[in-house]
Amino acid sequence: MAGVRGYFHPKTATGGSSLIPSPPWHYSGDLVTVEYRTDPARVAELLPEPLALADEDPGAVALIWADWQSCGSSKEELLDPVRAQYKEAFAVVRCSYRGKTYSRCVYIWVDKDFAIARGFHQGYPKKLGSIHMTRPHPYGPAPRIEAGASFGATLAAADRRLAEAVITLREPAETNGFVNGHPMAHHRWLPSIEKGKRLALDELIETGSASFEAGQPWSADAELALFEAPTEELARLEVHELIGAYYRQVGVSWDGGTLLETGTSGAE
Amino acid sequence: MAGVRGYFHPKTATGGSSLIPSPPWHYSGDLVTVEYRTDPARVAELLPEPLALADEDPGAVALIWADWQSCGSSKEELLDPVRAQYKEAFAVVRCSYRGKTYSRCVYIWVDKDFAIARGFHQGYPKKLGSIHMTRPHPYGPAPRIEAGASFGATLAAADRRLAEAVITLREPAETNGFVNGHPMAHHRWLPSIEKGKRLALDELIETGSASFEAGQPWSADAELALFEAPTEELARLEVHELIGAYYRQVGVSWDGGTLLETGTSGAE
Amino acid sequence: MAGVRGYFHPKTATGGSSLIPSPPWHYSGDLVTVEYRTDPARVAELLPEPLALADEDPGAVALIWADWQSCGSSKEELLDPVRAQYKEAFAVVRCSYRGKTYSRCVYIWVDKDFAIARGFHQGYPKKLGSIHMTRPHPYGPAPRIEAGASFGATLAAADRRLAEAVITLREPAETNGFVNGHPMAHHRWLPSIEKGKRLALDELIETGSASFEAGQPWSADAELALFEAPTEELARLEVHELIGAYYRQVGVSWDGGTLLETGTSGAE
Amino acid sequence: MAGVRGYFHPKTATGGSSLIPSPPWHYSGDLVTVEYRTDPARVAELLPEPLALADEDPGAVALIWADWQSCGSSKEELLDPVRAQYKEAFAVVRCSYRGKTYSRCVYIWVDKDFAIARGFHQGYPKKLGSIHMTRPHPYGPAPRIEAGASFGATLAAADRRLAEAVITLREPAETNGFVNGHPMAHHRWLPSIEKGKRLALDELIETGSASFEAGQPWSADAELALFEAPTEELARLEVHELIGAYYRQVGVSWDGGTLLETGTSGAE
């Protein structure tokens, strides 16, 4: 008996229906990053056991927009681009675990189902959203990647705008920011199917890129606004002070992570 | 220390960002059901250990379209209907487990993220799709629920049409079909975050309605067509013989299920 | 030579590509109506020559949500419902023309292209939007059409929420409101393709239903909020005083209108 | 009395609600072009009086995908990119008018309302569609613009795929094809609001770019497939022989056109 196959559901005899192929997954994309400081208590309240606030600059937040093309190892999705292209916006904070600093995505919105599925696997707490980013272009009115060029980035979900930013490039920079620069410490959680029981899945994992290439990062000036919505708490990460903003084009591969511990988050 | 809260991700201090509230979940909706026979081998290949083909009519399939409004116990989603309304189309087969007959959803497409999240929890292998159903209406050209009335139902995903049906109501019926009439035997699967390791989650669960009310079911004549697509295998469940078709309006509540066994599916 | 055919573009040898069929067009739908008073000057500024403010209650506005299924005389769209179903939200005021009171739609958002095309023809100034309305249902948590039942209605465009209402049914009513109860006085405008020339099309037309059937209207209490957006002016029609709210199910046919005059609007 | 303002509807006191600003309009974008020969009779049947088949290669068709960012003279849309970005796919043929060769768009699908409105103005017979194109990128798995790089392009409307192409770049080319290289001869048509009357608008116009800059065109090998759909006739332009394929990045401005004649198309 062959059994059902497929990296993800739906599992079938061939595996050909799986919403996502098995890793490695490859990505080409552009990133708009805006880093700012919020009240560290607002970061701390998003960190379950055994995570703690980062030692330095614990209130730092990165709000990142990304415009991706992604694929599995066959790369076939790239030629049927409805299956490759997606955009996302996500908020990253840092935390401390066993004396080491990690990044952690606390909110994220994407616009395709395969991206949601990868998020379940990687511990990104994904919802659907409507994400837009100005794209650089060598001709016409769209911006080049050069000093003075401005890029807009917006996020909406459930028909409400949640965030918008405009960044204006200043000069080549040494980094693309520091908040999203560590390995990610994420939880993978799923409730028990039985009422009142403990979580069926409660894993703390570490994950990060398997390979990375990138163009010159640019530093930028930024305007950022966050908006309230009845089912969102992004705006609780209030903007107290802008740290910096960045634009960068990257190529990334992802190929699995590491299980750190299980059953310890104390999450409901 | 309060810890993070929320039935689903993202978990926060308040729990207010959770993509879905804790059960019970309540649904109002209309169902178009088309039942047909396919090659039982095509059903068998979708049943992992320890499930087996149903004893009677093992090649029976129900393809069901549903137009839902759903909510948690606060019912607040109903008044912000972008958060309550969704449509879905799904294929159900039957199977046998420990001498008992179960229904099992083998493919399903929905059009909202909260429905995808509920699917992860309930073991429905959900993807995003574009689903449309004719709605009954008491005035104008749309059909009433009465003999001779026709309803169309269509499904597309990734910009390709996958299925379409037209049903024409014949007469009041005793049932809404038999394929989706049993408790559901579903798997909840998630790969390990570590490459080459066994599944992190491999649960066989039983789930079904906590309460159910419904109007008069109607039997119907049907035309049904399934279409090929590069990432879908619905059309492998070829239509060999139509069994029947049905229209029914229902109200349903869901409030959890039962864990049957773990680690036994042998799924990759 | 046969020439190209089709009621609308694209015109072809067969006419089969036309975005809309020739009238009559038939509609089944539900209407949520909220009527309120704004500053009459805000209404007057939307009325071009030769229209003037209505004599009575000139600041009255109706904001209406509609959930439609529509079709041409073949009714084939109803069985491929992606081509039949659409939702809209629109603001209606009244005006006076040659001593007679007309209704006039000043803003409208729809969610399908065939509805946009019909709007060009009928003088409705349509944009795309995301429109949602609670639907009545006989089972489960969704409301019945009965006293105490609440319905939500929301409008967004370009990822921003523009309006939201909740109405709670009070009792059967004699009417469905008065603002949208007159023939429509609409303009059909199109700029010249040549810069600096006068409008290529500047028609004042009268249009209305060719036939109408409807269920019992219900009066309702309402909450209504309008929101600012950079490319929208709906919120300039500020809510000074709520007049009333209504729910009604209707069946409507449209079959052409009357040209009142041309070239007189003075519009840029 | 100030009168209502705005280049397009809805016209208001400020003009700020207009679905499109007044020209000039500026565009940055990438073009995938596939040129092929069909039966010239299938082209001729799409050409109303007084247009005739082009003298040379009259069965030539260009199917073009474009991924645009566009704006008016303020360029503000670029920083709120949900208002600037859109994609389109369109079929172009050539025709002869008064001894001169013109290009003519016979079918076109776009994914934003402002693009539909510009189409009404410019005589492009636009419908809504879902359009996707692989985008070049300097890092990761997405293609660079270089020999051997492959780009996919797909079109769907009303939940059905209508066309898909894959092109593989061969070498730098002298042109981006010849079918879409002439001024456009388009009709602007609108039915009378009164049944049985002649068209209210029946204009033959000439339009083209006011300015144009572009990168190196690349020639490409191509695969192209067209699919049937109940309301579309693109597939009637059957692919008899591929001519060539091209990739090019362009910057374009549009600033009005010329009225050639009125009332002569003989269109229904």
Count of the separate structural domains of chain A: 1
How confident is the prediction overall: mean pLDDT of chain A? 97
CATH architecture field of chain A? Beta Barrel
Helix/strand class of chain A: mainly beta
GO molecular function, one term (chains A, B, C, D): lyase activity
InterPro entries (chains A, B, C, D): Acetoacetate_decarboxylase, ADC_dom_sf
Protein name (chains A, B, C, D): Acetoacetate decarboxylase
Keywords (chains A, B, C, D): Plasmid
Describe it.
Chain A has about 270 residues and is mainly β. Chain A has a single domain (about 25-185, about 215-250), classed as Acetoacetate decarboxylase-like (Beta Barrel). Chain A contains two helices and 15 strands. Chain A has helices spanning about 40-45, 115-120, and strands at about 25-35, 50-55, 60-70, 85-95, 100-110, 125-130, 130-135, 150-155, 160-170, 185-190, 200-205, 210-215, 220-225, 240-255, 255-260. In chain A, the strands form two sheets. In chain A, strands 1, 2, 3, 4, 5, 6, 7, 8, 9, 12, 13 and 14 form a twelve-stranded mixed sheet that branches. In chain A, strand 8 and strand 9 form a beta hairpin. Chain A is globular. Chains in contact: A-B, A-C, A-D, B-C, B-D, C-D. Chains C and D meet through strand 5, helix 2, strand 6, strand 10 and strand 11 of C and strand 5, helix 2, strand 6, strand 10 and strand 11 of D.
